[in-house]
Design goal:
The complex is a heterodimer of chains A (569) and B (336). Chain A is an alpha+beta fold and 569 residues long. In chain A, 22% of the residues lie in helices and 24% in strands. Among the domains of chain A are: 2-27 and 525-568, no CATH class; 74-289 and 311-341, Cupredoxins -  blue copper proteins (Immunoglobulin-like, Sandwich), CATH 2.60.40. Chain A contains eleven helices and 31 strands. Chain B has helices at residues 2-17, 31-46, 49-55, 61-64, 73-93, 95-111, 282-296, 298-335; strands at residues 112-115, 118-120, 126-128, 145-153, 166-167, 171-174, 179-186, 191-196, 209-214, 217-224, 230-235, 247-252. The chains are: A alpha+beta (569), B alpha+beta (336).
Chain lengths: 569, 336
């Protein structure tokens, strides 16, 4: 009978509709990123030899151990202490420095150390546009895959600007931040700026005792509106001074300062107290741990660290990645870029952001040590550096010693732009100086300071790590807490493509939801209603069309019902 | 070609006499002696039998066996013989060049040196990958000896808008198997490099020949180019010097494919886009003075207004009788 088939079809339709409605109640399933799809970098840079971490002596220069992942090249330290003019060709070749990069001569006061110091600086571009291939050159990553356009003062190098002809990675001497310069009170210092860059630049020695104008070399405050004209590309200028006061100071380019400083033309300059036999590490390339501290620092402290905080605007750096023509770069930087509408995106400590700060900016300590921290903020905004687990004492503001009896201890150190603070960090486990051993964070407490272009964890975050919490490879020991830092060493993390909480549990409860398959629930319900309506219409039509049949069958049924009744009666 | 070669010869001679005055120079008794001095210097630094053989007239056969390329002995023997004749020629014609090379080398050896492949003095003047006598396998003999003077400096970028540094020339031509001596004159007060790539790696470490000097100063170095037609990249590798104009090519024989991004010769692979800008123009000043004129013309405009007033007045006067009639009529009506 066709009617029967029809009813059967109707029921199956309704059932399947009910089934799909049931299925749509379930949300899309979680798509878990296969970790093998991430580009994992080695936590420690493989090009850096672990042998560099050890305490050693090169060219008679004692170099302290530096157990972190990426310590400074010991040959750099030897060259910086002795001067590139007083070391063997063999050591010099290990530095990549030009033989005239640091020239040290003449013990004028007869106290056993050289007093004429010549430091040659060049200006190098990092992560600029290449007109030859779609990419940047020479590259310098501040974090995995993060390559902001930058300019730096670099020690005068020899040879190529990249690692080699096949590589686009910058020569290790060309890096953020501009190097820390260390000279002694009374030294006759010449900073020779050789402008290898395609824009005009200068050097302003902020806080350093320097004459406004020098008889031979002319004006030397670095300011094109007061003391000197811009130093054009291909030209050289000498900044000469003989500082009378010690302190942690600042040097930076003063040409179009609102852009050139943020681009990276800023570094720390330390004037050390004059002591006999005070062979200083004239350049601390990449800042951080000072592996050959001055005599005066060693008198009072067990360790010394240079901590240079900086901030960069992504859009500013992108100008040199957009154009190759210097005129277009000049136009966009000078006339079109509006710093009053700009915001900082990258926060760096010693030129790098987390997790690379773990490689070279850990403050590695032991119990009952006194550590000198020299801090500079060369960013455009006030920062507030917080030391977890420690209160440190501020001994100097802007290079000038604070009255010792009035010195205060804090755990948040606010630093205005260009400000320097010298801290005395004491690892005494008394609940005030230190709460004991650990891997204690040190970070800018403006929360954007712990992000890289808004993506946490990043920014200038680092750690004060006790040796008992340090791994053999120089990274903090965290695995015993079940912590895995490896995803931070992937560029996908900072491209915002990795759901950062997906691996917190087995079923990825906070992983990435997949796309919904099929229809939206609302559409589905309306479709079901339409189907029901259609079926109801068909039913009514059928009833109407077959009314005679229905009437007859009803009558027949009724009579059938009646007949047994009648039979009974 | 001939013209440029002679010019470079002359320039080289000039610089040998003027620019490169080093401590050793006053001691030289004659140009010829000096050339020999050059040889002996190389002998001591290179400590390499074949290097010696390449230059020394009185070399013997087993010296030659030390040669890297002695496997193809035919070519190697050929090479040494050719070298002899070439060298004789060198002595006759080219004293000045040897003067330059000798002083430069002398200077190098005086201060620092690494190996025969890498020489550097106390100021960072560097010669890397120099090749005075090793014939490329594609050459049976040296085809010509050329001297090329290359000047580097910011001022040479002036004729190429949108660059910051440049060489004085962007292209040089030499014959295959030519022995080319480059005199690299850096006229800026910073470092510049003359760096060539793509040379055969069995003769040149990393396939590179590299001169580097902080100016204003000169450095010279020699290579023997391979036998095939090819074009070689020449550039300064200091960050963004090549990108900003310090790029050229050495064309050997008929040359190969042109290298992109050479100022005035070839386009970059990736080009910037340029747009018209709203810059102040002299015609803006003309517009400004027009406005000034409008202000000063205020009086003439007033005259026009007065003219209109006059016209209005006349019209008014004409209309007066008509207006007068209206009240008069009314008056008449009132009276009646």
């Amino acid at each position: 009978m066709p009617t029967h088939i029809f009813f059967a079809l109707l029921t199956s339709f309704l059932m399947s509709a009910a089934m799909t409605a049931q299925a749509s109640l379930k949300l899309p399933s979680t798509v878990k990123v296969d970790r093998a799809a991430l580009t994992f970098e080695e936590p420690c840079d493989p090009i850096i030899s672990p042998a560099w971490r050890e305490a050693q002596e090169i060219e008679g220069v004692k170099i302290e151990a530096s157990p972190g992942c990426s310590p400074d090249n010991p040959a750099w330290i030897a060259a910086a202490v002795k001067g590139t003019n007083n070391i063997s060709m063999d050591t010099l070749m290990k530095t990549g420095l030009s033989p005239d990069a640091i020239i040290k001569t003449d013990d004028l006061d007869g106290d056993g150390d050289p007093d004429r110091i010549i430091i040659k600086l060049e200006i190098m571009e990092l992560n600029g546009k290449s007109p030859d291939f779609p990419g940047l050159v020479p590259t310098f990553d501040i974090a995995p895959g993060i390559q902001p356009g930058a300019w730096v003062f670099a020690p005068k190098t020899s040879g190529m600007s990249t690692e080699n002809f096949e590589s686009v990675r910058a020569n290790p001497l060309l890096r953020l931040p501009s190097p820390v310069i260390r000279v002694e009170v009374g030294d006759i210092v010449q900073i020779v700026l050789e402008n290898t860059h395609y824009f005009p630049h200068s050097i302003h020695l902020h806080g350093v005792d320097h004459p406004f104008s020098h008889g031979e070399h002319g004006g030397q405050d670095g300011v094109p509106q007061t003391s000197e004209v811009e130093l054009m590309p291909g030209e050289r200028r000498i900044y000469q001074f003989q500082a009378r006061q010690p302190g942690t100071m600042f040097y930076h380019c003063h040409v179009q300062t609102h852009t050139h400083l943020a681009m990276g033309l800023a570094g720390m300059i330390v004037i050390e107290e004059n002591r006999p036999n005070n062979w200083l590490q004239t350049l601390n390339i990449g800042a951080g741990h000072v592996r050959h501290p001055s005599v005066a620092v060693k008198e009072q402290y067990d360790q010394e660290y240079d901590l240079h905080y900086h901030a960069m605007d992504k859009e500013l750096g992108e100008i040199i990645q957009k154009y190759n023509d210097p005129r277009l770069i000049a136009r966009d930087m000078n006339q079109r870029y509006d710093i009053t509408d700009a915001s900082e995106d990258y926060y760096t400590l010693n030129g790098l952001s987390y997790p690379y700060t773990l490689r070279e900016s850990l403050i590695i300590v032991e119990q009952d040590q006194k550590i000198k921290l020299r801090m500079l903020n060369s960013g455009g905004e006030l920062i507030a550096v917080h030391t977890h687990g420690h209160h440190a004492t501020i001994t100097h503001y802007d290079g000038v010693e604070h009255n010792p009896i009035a010195q205060i201890m804090r755990d948040v150190f606010d630093m205005a732009p260009a400000q320097r603070l010298d801290l005395k960090l004491e690892t005494i486990d008394d609940g005030k100086h230190s709460y004991g051993e650990g891997d204690w964070l040190i970070h800018d407490h403006r929360e954007k300071g712990i992000t890289t272009n808004g993506m946490a964890e990043g920014g200038s975050m680092s750690s004060i790590v006790y040796k008992s919490y340090l791994n053999g490879n120089g990274l903090p020991k965290v695995s015993h807490f079940g912590i895995d830092l490896s995803e931070y060493f992937t560029k996908e993390y900072y491209q915002r493509r990795y759901p950062i909480w997906q691996d917190l549990d087995d079923w990825a409860s906070l992983g990435s939801p997949g796309e919904r398959e099929g229809l939206m629930p609302a559409t589905q319900t309306s479709l079901i209603y339409a189907l029901i309506g259609l079926l109801a219409g068909l039913l009514i039509y059928l009833i109407f069309a077959k009314r005679e049949q229905i009437k007859l069958s009803t009558v027949a049924a009724v009579s059938r019902l009646r007949s047994p009744k009648g039979g009974n009666q | 070609m001939v013209k440029t070669t002679t010019i470079t010869f002359l320039l080289a001679g000039f610089f040998a006499l003027s620019a490169n005055v080093h401590a050793q120079q006053p001691a030289k008794p004659s140009e010829h002696d000096h050339a020999q001095h050059d040889h002996s210097d190389q002998k001591t630094t290179k400590q390499d039998a074949h290097d010696h053989s390449g230059h020394d007239m009185s070399q013997d056969q087993h010296d030659h066996s030390g040669h890297d390329m002695s496997k193809d002995s035919g070519a190697a023997v050929d090479h040494s013989k050719m070298d002899h004749s070439d060298h004789a020629h060198d002595h006759d014609v080219d004293h000045s060049t040897h003067g330059v090379q000798a002083t430069e080398h002398g200077d190098m050896q005086h201060h620092h040196h690494m190996d025969h492949d890498h020489m550097m003095d106390h100021e960072g003047t560097m010669i890397m990958g120099q090749n005075l006598d090793q014939l490329p396998s594609s050459c049976r003999s040296i085809s010509e000896e050329v001297e090329i003077t290359v000047r580097a400096g910011r001022k040479y970028s002036a004729k190429f808008p949108g660059t910051a540094f440049a060489f004085d020339q962007q292209e040089w031509h030499v014959k295959p198997c030519a022995k080319v001596t480059f005199h690299f004159i850096n006229e800026d007060n910073i470092r510049h490099q003359f760096m060539m790539h793509g040379l055969p790696k069995y003769l040149y470490k990393y396939g590179m020949f590299h001169l580097e000097v902080t100016g204003p100063k000169t450095v010279s170095g020699t290579i023997i180019v391979p036998g095939g037609d090819d074009t070689y990249l020449v550039h300064c590798d200091i960050s963004h010097h090549m990108e900003k104009g310090m790029k050229a090519q050495l064309v050997v024989g008929k040359g190969g494919a042109d290298i992109p991004g050479i100022p005035g010769l070839t386009h970059h692979n990736i080009n910037d886009t340029y747009e018209a800008e709203n810059l102040p123009k002299l015609s803006d000043k003309a517009d400004q003075s027009k406005m000034v004129r409008q202000i000063t013309q205020f009086t003439t405009d007033n005259l026009q207004t007065y003219g209109m007033m006059l016209a209005g007045l006349l019209l008014g006067l004409f209309c007066v009788p008509l207006i007068r009639k209206i009240p008069l009529r009314r008056n008449k009506e009132n009276k009646s």
